[in-house]
Amino acid sequence: MSKALEKVMDAVDIETFLICDNEEEGKKISLQMMKELGFKDASIVFIQHSGPGARVRVRGYVYKPGDRYNWLFEKNN
In what order do the strands lie in the sheet with 11-19? Predict the structure, then answer.
């Protein structure tokens, strides 16, 4: 995990417009994108298909409740 991501308290949201035929394809592409970016767990917060694609906001979880939070155990906060 990068040093910057170690400072994230819980999750990272990414909002973008994806070229796709429908909402289902947009969901599939969104989750694949997050996987390719290295997030093991992601969820779709918002999706709206319009015209050539979909506006999406997807959340990649760095830490889930109960995880070992690296920022709690750092020596130099």
Answer: 11-19, 53-61, 42-50
Distances (CA, A) of 66 to 11, 32, 62, 69: 14, 25, 12, 8
The full set of domains in the chain, from first to last, is 3-73 (3.30.30.60)
Q: Which of 33, 77, 25 is nearest to 59 (CA)?
A: 33
Using one digit for the tens of pLDDT, what is the confidence trace for 3-40?
788 788 889 999 999 999 999 999 999 999 999 999 98
Structure tokens at 6: 């170690």
| Residue 60 in tokens | 């990649």
50 strand-pairing partners: 53
Rounded CA separation 38/65 (Å)? 19
Structure tokens at 10: 């819980």
